[in-house]
Design goal:
This protein is α+β, with helices and mostly antiparallel strands. It has one domain (1-69): Alpha-Beta Complex (Nucleoside Triphosphate Pyrophosphohydrolase), CATH 3.90.79.10. Helix content is 16%, strand content 37%. It has 1 helix and 2 strands; from the N terminus they run αββ. It has one helix at 16-28; strands at 31-45, 50-63. Strands 1-2 form a two-stranded antiparallel sheet. The protein starts with 15 loop residues before the first helix and ends in a 16-residue tail after the last strand.
Length: 79
């Protein structure tokens, strides 16, 4: 089994922290109180004119119980 942290794209005029709160709620149904960015990963490809930046945000506290996503795209799978 593997796990991928909740994530997604930042919407127009949305902060990365608000995006993290929205994505965690949307993907696993939990409220979070975020703290700070703890890791930044970026990939770039000049030939494809592509630049991707990922921010990993530390969660100070959370409320709720994680819910398994029901859509096949996010469903947990066991090997």
């Amino acid at each position: 089994m593997f796990w991928i942290p909740p994530g997604g794209g930042v919407e127009r005029e949305e902060s990365p922290f608000d995006c993290a709160k929205r994505e965690v709620m949307g993907e696993i149904g939990m409220h979070i109180n975020r703290d700070r960015v703890i890791y930044v990963r970026q990939r770039a490809d000049t030939e494809l004119d592509y630049h991707h930046v990922e921010l990993f945000i530390l969660v100070k506290s959370f409320c709720g119980k994680p819910a398994q996503a029901t859509t096949p795209k996010f469903r947990l799978s066991h090997c």
